Amino acid sequence: MALMITDECINCDVCEPECPNEAISQGAEVYEIDPGKCTECVGHYDTPQCREVCPVDCIPMNPDYRESKAELEKKYKRLMSAKS
Known about the structure:
Residues 1-29, 31-64 form the 4Fe-4S ferredoxin-type domain. It contains two helices and two strands, in the order ββαα. It is of the alpha+beta class. The chain has a single domain (16-83), classed as 2-Layer Sandwich (Alpha-Beta Plaits). The protein has a two-stranded antiparallel ribbon with strand order 1-2. β1 and β2 (31-33) form a beta hairpin. The relative contact order is 0.26.
């Protein structure tokens, strides 16, 4: 399941550089996570790095993008092969 950033975001800028898939970008009001790039850090880390650094705990699971660990691993492999 991809993650999302809620409107509780304070735009502190700490999550964006932590994302290994470059899925986080500044939106109109708060940072946003591209669900097509978010793998919850599967393939890179054991836990989502954006959640680790978020000071306000505003990064829940996105209920609109339910994915199994196997699906996240496939997405990770697809994203990495596209970088090559």
